[in-house]
Amino acid sequence: MLNSINTKNPGLFFFLKDYNPIINNSIKNNKWETIACPVCDNDSFSDLFVKREEPFVRCNNCSLVLINPRPEYEEIKKTYDNDYSRDYAKKDKTKLKRSLKRVNLVKRNFGSEGRWLDVGCSAGFVVKAASQCGFNAYGVDVEPWGINYGNTELGLNNLSVGLLENQAYPNEFFNVISLYDVIEHVPDLNTLAKELKRILAPNGVIDIVTPDIGHFRVTKPLSDWKEIKPSEHLYYFDKTTLNKLFSNHGLFITKKRFGLKASMKVCIQHII
Questions:
Q1: Which pTM does this prediction carry?
Q2: Secondary structure (DSSP) of 124-158
Q3: Residue 186 maps to which CATH number?
């Protein structure tokens, strides 16, 4: 196994290719990219394990765990097809019930009202729940089938297909922005965080749920944890690394909710 890698070493790609036959076969068949740590911009990593031909590493500076190198975005995007959204929509009653709980919790804790944006909205259940709770609700997702379902089956109007940063929402437009099981999938974390900062109202709140690698119930060895999902979950945060990512963009964690599942539930707001 590889002990450490340096993303600025021009020979890294070829070293990896020659070093491990599993990685070698995968790189031959797909387009791959190597990145610096999106949290601290460090370029040195220690290897952890390889799963389904993808190398999982830990940043030697901030300890973020991520897939690196990884398939390029167009390869990753193929994992979110119509079947993914259809399976999600089959659980409509359960998803809407959970969404209502999440929306009401934010509303109680922050007295929120106004506009709500759900990033990675899939079939639109959080958008529907926010609408039912009095918000002017919006949603965005990269997968068209879910957006069409939300429009036709849930009667939603403010749904868009594509990346958040391509939607051109006005500055300080949203009072609440939710990302439920989304941020771990996003290829460009800093572009996302910058855009969230721009469109969040001065007293607004970002509600995030993501797997928590620092949780006491994370399976050991780490490679057996159910949240280790090659080409899907690109990053594995704890509170420190997630807060560091957002603090780089003038946002910080103001509230963390306890949960028995290995999932991190946090609220993020502007640094005042």
A1: 0.88
A2: SHHHHHHHHTT-EEEEEES-HHHHHHHHHTS----
A3: 3.40.50.150
